[in-house]
Amino acid sequence: MSAVTQARPAWAGAPLLMGAILLAWLLAITAEVTGEVQWVHHHRLVVDGLALWASLALFLVAWQVHIAAMMLPTTLPMVGLYRQVAAGQPHPRLARVSFLSGYLVVWTAFGVAALVGMALLEGLGARWHWLHQRPEWLAGGVLVLAGAFQFSALKEACLDKCRAPRAFLLNHYRRGVAGGFALGLRHGAFCLGCCWALMLVMFVVGIANLTWMAPLAALMLYEKVGRHGARLVRPVGVALILLGLLVMAGPAWLPGLVPDHGGHGSPLHGAH
């Protein structure tokens, strides 16, 4: 484990991962510029004209792009350290793949759970006229929730783990493919515990909505690796709470977040 104390820059040994991150951002930007956002902006359980399995497959592909763009940059320090530590074990490449697979399993499970939750809310909105006419309450409520979570003990505990990858590896590292997968699951769980509320915002504003995607990705990255990242957490929480209250009080002030009242573009109906 001595290699943990001699880590190179996180991206130095992960060219494929850096390529995946850059490709994901390129896809998101291209989709936005060309107007073909439906391919990466998907957050409905059932898309009109597609079978359920095809809709779910489309979402899973779009969600992997989303994870690659927003979450993989925040885990580069851990990936760089794990690459060095695992170099001395049998089948190090397979162990690294297994580690990343465990990490992606956690975030994929969260994406599916959030997708189902949005579908349930959509069904509730269709039957509850008041909520159907006030989608800003969902959008504003999620922003308030994300802001409030910035003050939680869980956020602080998980952020501490994510900001200390060396200590995390020293405590949890196990050799082998199974050990790498278990470590990826554990790391993914702490990453999820730190960032789930901010990622949930994307289900309201639309997956791959660059107006929100870029600043939220930068925020989550800086919280984990920035020199003063821990100091930023609570001010961001205050800003999100105020923004959520503003949305609920006057949705017309933020038309990009709540396009209309109960129409096709509202959070309860999703963009596709």
Automatic annotation (TrEMBL):
Keywords of this entry: Membrane, Transmembrane, Transmembrane helix
- Its transmembrane ranges are 12-31, 51-73, 94-117, 137-155, 234-254
Name the source organism: Halomonas mongoliensis
Q: Report the superkingdom from the record.
A: Bacteria
What is the name attached to this protein's record?
A: DUF2182 domain-containing protein
